[in-house]
């Protein structure tokens, strides 16, 4: 009773204490979220070459609407989100299914499939482009030897995004490990009961495996979408190597080579801000990326509401 | 798992923020500090960032700096190798720049001058009694200053020409016109039974190492920009002439076969360069290749010549593309006076320039150094000295969107060469539009 009375007497003191406890987070939020966001909005209305500022009104925003490369980059990034992310999830799940069912040599196969995920992005991409090189690549030589078409994977705009997708599938080990853990976690008695009821393999997969591992699948999709919205290194390295451009004077690298087919949104943002010194415009692109990320976040958060339960309806 | 999912979703919001924070670095203002040179002999150590990294370059550079040390014993130079423009830029933004910085590319000069990233050197030149007009060839002024500010000085220059493998030329003389080049390229090309290229007379596509439009445009005397900075590419018929010529020769080889052949090459800067290995009979390259050939392919019998020119411009034969290494004093340099002594020594001292030129085979960038009896000259290197001295030789004038302009034209060239674009006029008009729009964005042009 005395405590309650005290609270009523000094309500501000309690709030102050709560704020004090929250202050580390609030300080971080202000420094790393509010300040960058407000500054970015401010810079988006400036001509800002990293050193000098000049107010230009809506010029940067108007340029965005006319910038064909930015829209190409958006299309490419969405293509990767829509095609590469689901394919990686499907492939990762397929590989995980296989390696969890192996009776002998499972450890060896798990290691083999996981190893590419440990290779640094730049090194992996370099190796992949050389493997698929139309002039000297062994994959092309094999395809030609058996009479199959051997496209110029990273030199033909019709194939370049598929080349990046292949690279993504090759390094699917990260997803495979997560799916393996989820698959091994499915109670065996469910399969035994289903088998007694006469359910075939496909029915067991769709009625038992998928519902149980659904939260893990969604996790894989969400992280895949997030990573792909930031897709940069593989596209940049693949385009550089395939184009043959070096960083020397006079050797011009055209990002997204060939024909901007591998140009992703973060690449274009980087190009504008740090290569073309158009930081004001880069801030517009950053805000667009931020807005798109927020939209994805909200959609996915809505989806999660139904996911935080297991098949018995219990919270997990 | 639920928390994990929510955490992942929150991460997607920070994906955009990661980019946002890049936009928020602080600005710096204030005029560059200019002081009279040579006033103090107090011991001082200056930081010098440069891009040289090869062993022979570093050795030559150390020798040159030793010469400076002898002349200015109170100034100690602390060099840092393999530095690129981005690092210089960030150091200036961070308020901790080197005293002297060197850039291999002239692409950033306009931005360096416009934004004051490098100090205007005109007051230093005046204080030292140096007249740039009488010291440097005229073409150099175009890539060392922007809108009246000379924020960098030239330290050695590069000139471009045609290299030819004498054995593969089968007695033919180097071509002087583009028609002769195309005819000879066809004659010297060797294909196998399947039609794959084994030896190319000349690889015409723009993605070939040094075939970028800034180097090939001079073959037709093509213009990049109008005096107001807008694009002249679509309106100058010379670009159309060059690209049509390139496409015709590319089609003769077959674009896919040519690309397959190009992608079998080794690294441009390695001993596996296809000119070194006899896979290409003629190639466009800079004067530095003479030093590389001496080191990597000493037995190769080759010659050099100016770039072939358009058939209707025979009077321009002998001209080439000129560019060079530039050096300056970044804004915020702590020891500007001592820094100027080093810049002055490296860019105006005949002995220093000749030593460096002889060691790494770049063209010396002052008129007295070009005339120096100590400058090593052989017939292959002489070609580039002549190109450098030719009044028709051109450079890419400093432009605030230099990199973007080059990228935009090269993208169009790739589309055209590959056959993925068929209307050249429309393609070049699109190039103009993109360049002009970008100019409005970055410079308000």
Ordered list of secondary-structure elements with their pairings:
The complex is a heterodimer of chains A (316) and B (445).
Chain A (H helix, E strand, L loop, with lengths): L1 H8 L1 H33 L2 E3 L4 E3 L3 H8 L1 H34 L4 H13 L2 H11 L6 H8 L14 H11 L2 H12 L3 H9 L4 H29 L3 H11 L21 H11 L3 H26 L12
Helix pairs in contact in A: 2-14, 3-14, 4-5, 4-8, 4-9, 4-11, 4-13, 5-9, 6-12, 9-11, 11-14, 13-14
Chain B lengths: L1 H21 L21 E6 L5 H17 L3 E6 L4 H9 L6 E4 L5 H6 L7 H7 L3 H4 L2 H7 L8 E13 H4 L8 H11 L1 E2 L5 E6 L10 H4 L20 H17 L1 H8 L17 E7 L2 H8 L5 E4 L16 E7 L7 H13 L1 H11 L6 H5 L7 H11 L12 H17 L5 H20 L2
Parallel strand pairs in B: 1-2, 1-3, 6-7
Antiparallel strand pairs in B: 3-9, 4-7, 4-8, 4-9, 5-6
Helix pairs in contact in B: 2-15, 9-11, 11-18, 18-19
How would you explain this protein's 3D organization?
By secondary structure, chain A is mostly helical. Chain A contains 14 helices and 2 strands. A two-stranded antiparallel ribbon of chain A has the order 1-2. In chain A, strand 1 and strand 2 form a beta hairpin. The longest helix of chain A has 34 residues. Chain A is flat, with a radius of gyration of 25 Å. Chain B has 445 residues and is an alpha/beta fold. In chain B, 45% of the residues lie in helices and 12% in strands. Chain B is built from 19 helices and 9 strands. In chain B, strands 1, 2, 3, 4, 5, 6, 7, 8 and 9 form a 9-stranded mixed sheet that branches. In chain B, helix 2 links the parallel strand 1 and strand 2. In chain B, helix 9 runs parallel beside helix 11, helix 11 packs across helix 18 and helix 18 packs antiparallel against helix 19. Chains A and B meet through helix 2, helix 3, helix 11, helix 13 and helix 14 of A and helix 1, helix 3, helix 10, helix 12 and helix 18 of B.
């Amino acid at each position: 009773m005395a405590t309650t009375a005290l609270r009523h007497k000094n309500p501000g003191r309690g709030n102050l204490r709560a704020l004090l406890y929250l202050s580390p987070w609030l300080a971080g939020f202000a420094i790393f979220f509010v300040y960058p966001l407000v500054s970015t909005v401010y810079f988006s209305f400036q001509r800002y070459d990293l050193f000098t500022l000049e107010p230009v009104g809506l010029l940067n925003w108007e340029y965005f609407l006319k910038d064909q490369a930015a829209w190409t980059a958006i299309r490419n990034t969405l293509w990767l989100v829509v095609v590469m992310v689901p394919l990686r999830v499907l492939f990762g799940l397929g590989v995980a299914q296989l390696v969890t069912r192996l009776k002998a040599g499972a450890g060896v196969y798990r290691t083999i499939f996981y190893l590419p995920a440990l290779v640094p992005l730049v090194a992996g991409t370099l190796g992949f482009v050389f493997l698929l090189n139309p002039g000297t690549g062994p994959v092309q030589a094999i395809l030609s030897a058996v009479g199959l078409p051997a496209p110029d994977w990273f030199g033909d705009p019709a194939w370049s995004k598929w080349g990046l997708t292949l690279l993504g599938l090759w390094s699917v080990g990260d997803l495979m490990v997560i799916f393996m853990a989820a698959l091994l976690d499915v109670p065996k008695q469910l399969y035994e009961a289903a088998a007694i009821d006469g359910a075939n393999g496909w029915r067991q997969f769709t009625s038992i495996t998928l519902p149980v591992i659904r939260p893990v699948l969604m996790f894989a999709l969400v992280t895949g979408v997030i990573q792909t919205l930031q897709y940069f290194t593989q596209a940049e390295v693949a385009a550089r190597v395939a184009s043959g451009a070096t960083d020397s004077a006079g050797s011009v690298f055209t990002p997204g080579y060939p024909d901007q087919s591998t140009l992703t949104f973060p690449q274009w943002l980087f190009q504008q801000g740090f290569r073309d010194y158009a930081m004001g415009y880069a801030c517009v692109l950053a805000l667009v990326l931020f807005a798109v990320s927020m939209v994805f976040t909200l959609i996915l958060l809505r989806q999660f509401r139904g996911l935080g339960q297991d098949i018995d309806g219990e919270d997990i | 798992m639920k928390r994990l999912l929510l955490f992942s979703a929150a991460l997607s919001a920070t994906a955009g923020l990661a980019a946002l924070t890049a936009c928020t670095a602080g600005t710096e203002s204030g005029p560059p500090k200019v002081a009279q040179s040579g006033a103090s002999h107090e011991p001082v150590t200056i930081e010098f960032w440069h891009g040289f990294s090869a062993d022979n370059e570093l050795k030559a550079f150390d020798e040159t700096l030793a010469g400076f040390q002898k002349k200015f014993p109170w100034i100690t130079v602390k060099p840092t190798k393999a530095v690129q423009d981005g690092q210089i830029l960030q150091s200036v933004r961070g308020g901790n720049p080197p005293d002297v910085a060197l850039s291999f590319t002239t692409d950033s000069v306009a931005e360096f001058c416009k934004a004051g990233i490098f100090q205007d050197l005109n007051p230093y030149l005046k204080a030292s009694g140096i007249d740039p007009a009488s010291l440097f060839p005229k073409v150099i002024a175009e890539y060392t200053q922007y809108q009246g500010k000379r924020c960098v000085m030239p330290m050695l220059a590069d000139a471009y020409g045609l290299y030819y493998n004498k054995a593969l030329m089968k007695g033919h003389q180097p071509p002087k016109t583009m028609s002769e080049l195309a005819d000879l390229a066809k004659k010297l090309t060797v294909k196998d039974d399947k039609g794959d290229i084994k030896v190319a007379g000349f690889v015409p596509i723009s993605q070939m190492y040094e075939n970028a439009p800034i180097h090939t445009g001079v073959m037709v005397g093509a213009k990049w920009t109008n005096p107001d900075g807008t694009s002249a590419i679509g309106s100058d018929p010379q670009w159309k002439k060059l690209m049509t010529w390139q496409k015709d020769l590319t089609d003769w080889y077959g674009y896919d076969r040519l690309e397959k052949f190009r992608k079998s090459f080794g690294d441009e800067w390695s001993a596996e360069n296809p000119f070194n290995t006899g896979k290409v009979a003629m190639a466009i390259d800079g004067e530095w290749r003479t030093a590389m050939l001496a080191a990597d392919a000493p037995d190769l019998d080759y010659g050099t010549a100016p770039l072939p020119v358009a058939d209707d411009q025979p009077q321009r034969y002998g001209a080439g593309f000129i560019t060079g290494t530039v050096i300056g004093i970044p804004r915020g340099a702590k020891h500007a006076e001592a820094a100027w002594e080093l810049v002055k020594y490296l860019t105006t001292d005949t002995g220093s320039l000749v030593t460096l030129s002889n060691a790494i085979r770049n063209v010396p960038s002052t008129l007295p150094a070009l005339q120096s009896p100590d400058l090593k000259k052989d017939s292959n290197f002489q070609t580039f000295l002549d190109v450098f001295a030719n009044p028709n030789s051109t450079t890419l004038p400093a432009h605030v969107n230099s990199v973007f302009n080059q990228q935009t034209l090269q993208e169009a060239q790739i589309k055209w060469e590959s056959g993925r674009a068929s209307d050249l006029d429309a393609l070049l008009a699109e190039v103009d539009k993109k360049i002009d729009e970008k100019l409005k964005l970055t410079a308000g042009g």
